[in-house]
Amino acid sequence: MSGSGHYKAFSGYGIELEYMIVDKTTLAVRPISDFVLRDESGAIQNELEFEKTCWSNELVKHVIELKTNGPAVLTRDLIGTFHSDLQKINTVLSRENCCIMPTAMHPFFDPQKGVKLWEHDDASIYEAYNRIFDCRGHGWSNLQSMHINLPFFDDQEFESLHAAVRLVLPILPALAASSPIFESKISGFADSRLEFYRHNQKKIPAIAGHVIPEQAWSKAQYHDVIYKKILEQIKPHDNDGILDVLWLNSRGAIARFDRNAIEIRVLDVQEAPRMDIAIAAVVTTLVKSLVDGEWIPLSEQKMLSEVPMHDIFVSTLKSGSGTVLKDQSYLKVFAATSGITAQDLWRQIISRLEERYPSLLSPFAEEIKVLVSLGNLSDRILRRLNGSYNQEAVAALYGSFCDCVQQNRIFS
């Protein structure tokens, strides 16, 4: 999220969407993001800035990111802005017979056969990551996500926002999973991206922790509880101090005190921007409802440890909407009973949010109805394939996703 001013909580949101670049004919990844990221003079840039959005590079050259240029309100207009940008990028890519392909993982890309890292400005950062972690794996080169940046004004807002975000994270894979396939096989995980994500830096455990952040309620406490551990563990691997702790922190939600925002990172990118923004609206409204005290008071929210919530998170990234939830301490937050599925829990949560916050969710009624009735995109992918997992069927399906993102169409 660009922009460095201090904003009040829920005054706007920074949205980041990552997409892979593929050949239109074969769907093979094409490392040509620098073909798109050129200014009017033709010079390659890390970022192109426009009035409402920015386009930027990522670690690997077959991925490009679109993001809001500062905090934005979640509206149909924002959907239109992202859609328009994606069409413009596709127009540029068409000169190379390429296009944008959505979803969180490429279904048959093998990163071990060759990955090209961004080699322009800031390349030293990516080279350091590659040296330490080896960025050829799926956890580095085959994962596309949506990030939501929620601003906070001061420590008081950070405390309530961080407490609420921690409670939402465990069940987000059940809502937003879009990666049930990689290397031409069903993975057994609704959210394969997150399974790779939580392991890709295990060499330095403090970087991701338990994915669910620790109980830290101020900037000073966050530094003591989280940043210090990361700095201690990375030091033997980064003698030159190239890697900033702000970038290294890979929990499912990270505090960015450089811009006073909490960034949620556990949402798979969807088939079209209308679905991404609808999910962002559901997630941010749920966070707001927790901050507003609609469920349980702040004092009780702060009591939940990251360890049991991590266990719930792992269950939902594996079983998705069908996850059976049994942790009574967690379910108490949402007044739900043990044995409820994650899908039914989301139905109950969304129903209550639509009643209490109609103005925030009614603009996305059509998209939310799909999520509530048909499930996350992983559910819809597996249902459509119906057991036909050969590469021809999978390629045809993912080729249709290229049409979805170009047309801003729901896959239902």
Précis, in short:
The chain is an alpha+beta fold and 412 residues long. The chain has 18 helices and 12 strands.
Describe the structure.
The protein is α+β, with helices and mostly antiparallel strands. It has a domain of 284 residues: Creatine Kinase, Chain A, domain 2 (2-Layer Sandwich). Helix content is 43%, strand content 13%. Strands 1, 2, 3, 4, 5, 6, 9 and 10 form an eight-stranded antiparallel sheet that branches. The longest helix has 19 residues. The protein is globular.
List the helices and strands and how they pair.
Elements: E1 14-23, H1 33-36, E2 47-49, E3 53-57, E4 63-68, H2 76-93, E5 98-101, H3 123-133, H4 138-141, E6 145-151, H5 155-168, H6 172-176, E7 181-182, E8 185-186, H7 192-197, H8 219-234, H9 245-248, E9 253-256, E10 261-268, H10 273-291, H11 298-301, H12 306-319, E11 324-325, H13 328-331, E12 340-341, H14 342-356, H15 358-361, H16 365-374, H17 377-385, H18 391-407
Antiparallel strand pairs: 1-4, 1-5, 1-6, 2-3, 3-4, 6-10, 7-8, 9-10, 11-12
